[in-house]
Amino acid sequence: MNRQQQIALFAALLALACACSGALAAPAKAKLVFTDIKGKNHTPFASAKTKAVVFVFLLRDCPVSNVY
């Protein structure tokens, strides 16, 4: 088997592996739910009409929010 045949065989096997891997079903993702201090649940990604979701964290002890 020459070099070109090896490359062609490798490319064919790689294409077959890629095609077969797409056929597997993705596992169901867990639903993201936040509970506020009043006990109300919020699901920011539940609505299909939502164009964007913004999370704002305000706490003076939080190093991430202190950067802003």
From TrEMBL:
Protein name: Alkyl hydroperoxide reductase subunit C/ Thiol specific antioxidant domain-containing protein
Taxon lineage: unclassified sequences, metagenomes, ecological metagenomes
